[in-house]
Each structure stands twice: as C-alpha cells, then as structure tokens.
Input
Amino acid sequence: MSVVLKGVFKDYPLGASIVRALHGIDLEIEKGEFTTIAGPSGCGKSTLLNLIGCMDVATTGTVSIEGKITNSLTDKEQTNLRLNTLGFIFQSFNLVPVLSVYQNVELPLLLKGGMTAGERSKRISELLDQVGLANKANNRSHELSGGQRQRVAIARALVTEPKIVLADEPTANLDSETGQNIIELMRTLNSKQKTTFIFSSHDPKVIEHARRIVRLQDGRVIEDVRK
Amino acid sequence: MFEELKVLLLVAIRNLALHKVKTLVVGGILLVGSFLVVFGLSLLGSVESTMSQSIIGSVAGHLQVYSSDARDDLALFGSGFFGRDDLGEINKFEDVKAEILKNENVSDVVPLGFENALLGRGNLLDDLFERFRATVKARSEKDIASMIETIKVNLRTVRSDLENELKISSIPDDIKKQIVDVEQALSDDFWLKLKQDPESVLIFLESKIAPLSGEKEPLYLRYMGTNPAQFAEVFKKFKIVDGENIPAGERGILLSQRIYETQVKNIVARGFDNLRKGVIEQRKKIAEDISLKTIASDLPKQYLEVVVYLSGEKRSEIAAQLKGFLKADENELEPLMKKFLTVDDSNFEERFSYFYKTIAPSIRLYPFKVGDTINLRSYTRSGFLKTVPLKIHGLYQFSGLESSDLAGAFNFVDMVSYRELYGRMSSEGQKELEELRKEVSVKPIESGSLEDSLFGGDVTLETRSDDNAKTAGLPRENAVLEFKRAATEKYDTAELNSGLVINAAILLKNPRRLNSTRIELEKQLADANMKLKVVDWKQASGTLGQLVSVIRAVLLIAVGIILIVAMAIINNAIMMTTLERTREIGTLRAIGAQRSFVLKMFFVETLTIGLLATFLGAVLAVIFVSILGTRGIASPSDFVSFLFGGPRLYPTFSTTIAVVAPIVVAALALVFTLYPAFMASRISPAAAMQDRE
Output
C-alpha cells in the first residue's frame, strides 16, 4: 500500500474558533494508482494533499506513506521523506525563477546528493526528453510557456524517482488543451514507471482522465470510484 | 558539499540580480560602512603616527622618567591648566642616567625640567622713557630735544585719555591728580630741570607718568631646562633658525621662533601678520570672519604702539609719507596713523606691504632680539621670586611644526640656569653670590628693584635695560644707573648631566619595543632603589597624547551607531524579500530542502553581496587614502598641524585594516541576517501551495 489514511481529522484555528477541514478520512491508495482527489474549492483537497505530502500533520488519525507513519516524524525526517519518496507538482509550477530549466530539474538531485555530475546529466536529459523539453535545458523559466513550465515541474518531481507524485491542481493555470496534454503526460509516465500519482482537481475534463476518483465534500469522502 | 555550495552560490547570485533594490540598498550600505571604517581608521592611524613623531621628536622622546613622589602626572604639553605641576625631583641625575643606560634598548637620556616664567613687558611709556634715559646718558643734545617732543606728543595723548576717563570715572580725584602730574610734565619748567638734575626728571617720568599708560600684559614663558647640545643632537626636529645653540658651558636661553613671532613681536605688526594669514593665506574676509574683524577693529586703537617709536625727523617724515599715501588732509601723525591702521578687505594688502616697507623699519619690531639679555622671572620652590638674566643665544623651531603653538610652547635654558631659577645653586654660584651680596650692600637700592631685594634676598638686582649686556661694559661714571649681573656665564658642562633634574627623556634604539622596555626600565629602577616612574610618550604628553585614542573611540562609536542603523535597514530589507520569497522558499522546502539549506542560502547571499560590497568599499577607501597620501590634507588650524606633524597630512593606509575591516563589516551583516534567515527557515513547505499568480 502506497498511502494509508486512517480516521484523519484536521482542524485549523481561525481566530478564536476552529475550522475542521477534514472529518475522519479513511483512504488507501495502492502502488501505481493514478488517483484524482476531486471536489469544489474549500472541500479539503489541499489539506489532504498537504497531509500526504508531509507538509502538515493530522490533528487526529494517522497518515502512513510507504508503510511509514508520518505523524510523529521530526521536520528533518519529514523533509527527507519529501526528498526521497515524494515528488511535487504545483498549480503555479513554482520553478525557482533564478535557475535554468536544467538547474531546476537538477535541484532535488543536488539536495539529495550521491550522484556524479555525469549521472545527473544523464538522468536529467532522459527526463527532459520524456517531457519534450530536451532543447530547452538552458532556458530560464520565464522564457517558457505555462505548459512548458509545468513539464519542467513534472521532470523535477520525477527526477529523484519518487514512489509517489503529488500534484495540486496541476492544470488550473493552464488552458484546457494544454491541461489535458499535461494530464496525458502524467498518465504516460505513470504507466511507464509505476509511480503512484495523486492529483487534485475540480476540472471535470481533467478528472475524467483519472483511473480512480475520490470525491470530497466538506472534508468527507463522498465518492470513491475506480474506472 | 561542493555541489551544494555551487547551488547556493548560484541561487545567491541569481537572487541578488533578481532583487536589485534590496541588493543595491544592502550593498550600498555595506560599501559605505566599510569605506568609512577603512578610511577613518587609516586617517586616524596616520594622525597617530604623525602626532607621535611630533611628540617624540620634539621634547618627549619615547619614554619619560620622573619621580614617583610626584603629586601630578607629567604633562609635557600642559595638563590643561596653567599651574605649576608637582613632579617631584630627580636629585642625582647622573646615577639615574647610568642606570637607565644599562638597558640595551636605550640610546640616550636627556635631562629636562620645565617651569613657567614671567617676562615683564613694561608699558609703552616705560619703553619710551627707557630710551630717553639712554639718550640722556649718551648726552646727545639733538636727540634729547627730539625725544622730548615725542614724549610731549605722547603725554598729550595720555592727557586727553585721562580727561575722557574723568568723565566716567568713579574716582575723579585720583584722575585729577594724575592730570596735574601730566600737566607738570608738559610744562617747560619741568624740562629745564633736565640739565641740572636729570635723575629727578627721569624718576618723575618713570614713577609718576609711566604707570598712567597702563601695564602691558606680562609674557608667560614656558621654559625647559636641558643639556642644549645633547638636546639638539637627540631631537632631530629641533632646528636653530637664528643665532646659535647655547654654547657648551654657557648660560642662556633659546626662544621659540613661534613665541617670538606671535607673542613678543610688536602688537601692531602681529595684528598685520594675523590678518595676512586670514585674508591672504586662508582667503577669508575681514568683514565676514569674527576673529579677523576683532583684530582689524583693534588695530587703530593700538596706534600708540607704533607712534611711540617715532621721534624727531622720523615723526614728520612718516607723517608726510602717510599723508601722501592716504591722500589725507591731516598733518599730525596720530590721526594719520589711526587712519592708516583702519584696514578692511579692500585696502588690507596694500596697507600690509606699506606697513612693512615704510613703517616697520622705523619702529622697534621686537623688544629684544638674539644677542640681548632678558630677565627671566620665576618662583622658586620655596616661593621666592627669582630673576635670572639670560642671554638669548638664538631662536629655534621644530621642523614641520613651525606653525604649531604646542610644539613652539617651550623655550630652552641650560640646566644650570634652570636650577638657579628653581632655587638650587651650583657651587660656583654660591660663591659668586657671597661676593655679590657684599657688593650690593654698598649700593643704593633703586625703587624698581626694591621688591626683589626685600623678598628675594639672594637675588640678582634687576638691570634697568634690556641692553644691559652692552651697558655693562660702559665705564661706571657714564652710567646713569646700572647694576652688575650676578651669576657667572660659565659653568662646567658636567654640571648639566649631574644633580637635580625634574624629568628626563629616554630615546630608544628600537621604538617597537617601547612598552616592553618601559616595563624593563621600571623594574630595573625599582631594583636599584630609585623611586621613579617611567611613562610612554603618550602618557607624558598629557591630554594631547590621549587625544587620538579619544578620537578613535568617538569615531568607532559613531561608525558603530551608523553600522547598527545600517544593519537594521539591512535586516529590514532582507525581511521584506523573505516575505516576497515565501512561496519560493516553501517550494524548496517541499521538494526536500532542509531548514539548514534555507539558512545557508541566506548566509551565502549576504556573504556574497557583503564581501563584494565591503571589499569594494575598502578598495575605494585605499584608493582615496592613496590619493590623499600624495596630495596631502591641509591642516585647518595650527593645532591640527601639530597632530599632522606639519602643514599637511599625507595619510597612509594599513593593509591589516583594509583586509580586516571589510570582513568585520560583512560578518556584522551576517549577524543581522540571522533573524530573517531563521524566519525564512521556519516557512512551511505548504507555503508552496499558496497561489498568487
């Protein structure tokens, strides 16, 4: 099992009151699944992804990633988990603006260490080839279109060969055609590399590409279907 | 590790380029801060070195030794008070010198002792009557007649002054009596008596009339007893500019050229000199500068100081010349002189050159000159006023410090005369004194020297003339009144280096070892049972020596405050960019960057811009100092010229400061990056999810 959530509640303080973002989520995601967390904004999609992505901790309940319960991990351990096991794709691409395409993709490898420059170069070239940006390696992110940037982000997410890739509304800032292409790409990579993909979306056209759709409403799972 | 640093540097440089405003603010502040520190400290270091040369090379030497019984601290350049410091005594200098010379780093020990003396300047009429006495003595009828005219002119001025004073005085009766005296001196009957009884006429003038013109302020002379030949050899800056050094075995005084020019010289000439300095050298305007204005407005009031020296033909000659020069209607000298001395910006240059070309040669510019003998009056340790006649052998100055009042504050006398003024007599002197006493007891005591005879029993009687060296040679019967000098001119040169001194300057072979040698000497002297203090030149020079330390402290505090304010700005600027970069930092954290990486990222950024900016600042400061080092900085005042060791300072930079200061400033910037960096490292990786595009 890739991701297991058991009885997860998440509360946020909001002024003097407390807002409950997640109401007892139980969810299991298997290795290699291509899953969408769907639902309107404010339903708890991002909170759920944050918990899976070790960027936040559940108020009650447990989250385990690749068999490891994350609740009690230190910041350092969580960071290492993100670095080694998880890959992230963001709605706004979040490339480091001062770095080139190549350097952006290289960054997680450098953080991780243990690879020679040659090994890194080989790996990055392969990935950029797969996402169709082999000729843009030396461009800076602001020279690229939105779709191209998201492709760079995908390459960056995959470069460390993570077990799970998390994508938060990856197509929200793209036009629908580009968005569909991105989802297609993610799906291709998913089937090739058996990486677990979990992405959130509220766009029906995007959602329909998923093999499994988990619908959230008001912090509860209201539907969980596999196609 | 290396790879990580590469990324950090890359990110840092790219970020610096991206946040241009922040980079410029932070970099600019650091550049200026580093520039100020390097420049300020280089300048101060240069001043300290020139000042130390000024102090060491003039009178202090590297170390000074004096009695540990001293109640006051040694302050060669004054403790700030014109008082008499109690510095104790070194009674057997020869022993102390021998002991100190045992230290292998000591090259020489110069005996010293300083004290303040009074030099009475008499008053205007005193000067006039003194010359009259000499004229009467010379029995030149023509000169006498001409001088009587001059005296009468001056008496008329005194009378009109007194009449004016009468109108406002609270003691009108006294003034009326004085006017009666002046009237008497103006009468023809009075002058008829000159033939039969010259002495009574002279005494009336000297005792009744002279005081009416008011005493000039006495001149305070700071004199230093030493071994003149040794002093000149050891202190390389010391230079005789007129006459000669006090010859071996002779008594005498060397006057400071500075004092001679600025305090002894005729007051009107000094006024012209000071105005010339302000108007021509410093390009100031009399109308705008308050001190020049005061000098200029005082000048016409001092016309008597010129007129009194003009008599007979000279009077009418100068009056005629002035009349032509000023295109004036008056014929009388006094109003013409007053008019001539009324200077302003438009006429000053012309008047100045006219004064020195036409008037100055006819008046006495200096009351005494090289070769004359002056009577130095000083209080002995036991409180007696002691007068010692001393021949002015020469004028001296310290090279490079010609215009400094501090360096020119001393006049040098031989140690033997010093001891006499101090109240210690040489064995030779004691013997002489006995003979003198016998001689004096049979002479009539003149009123002017009565005080000395009463209170300073063992004292030389004051001579009546500055020119007593000359008059002393005249046959007794020609003299109107005169006294023989007491002390012998000669002494054994060995006396200079033995017996009493107050302090002594120690010169070192290797000045770098100054402090260790000082400690060695202190121990050495203590072991030899000599109760003496050894201080370095800084301490010995009094408040002056500490001046640079004080300036440095003030500068460092000021720079410190500026830097702290600057750092607060830097802190703020980094804080602002941190907020801007929240999502970027969140992303880095999300994709696996540890908190420490974020911290390092900030540090590398600050260090990159910090070291770049501070070293650039330091380089600019070094260039600036080097330019000043070839051009020199003009000293703004005579006092500063002492600190500068001359009229211009040629600063040099210290490599250590140029390297260390920027590192320190950059490190400070790093400290002020700690908080923003810490805050940045606390940014949650979830911040990457915040969408603002």
Chain A has one domain: 3-226. The helical segments of chain A are 45-52, 75-85, 101-112, 117-130, 146-158, 176-193, 204-207. Strands of chain A lie at 3-14, 17-29, 34-38, 60-65, 68-69, 86-89, 164-168, 196-201, 212-217, 220-226.
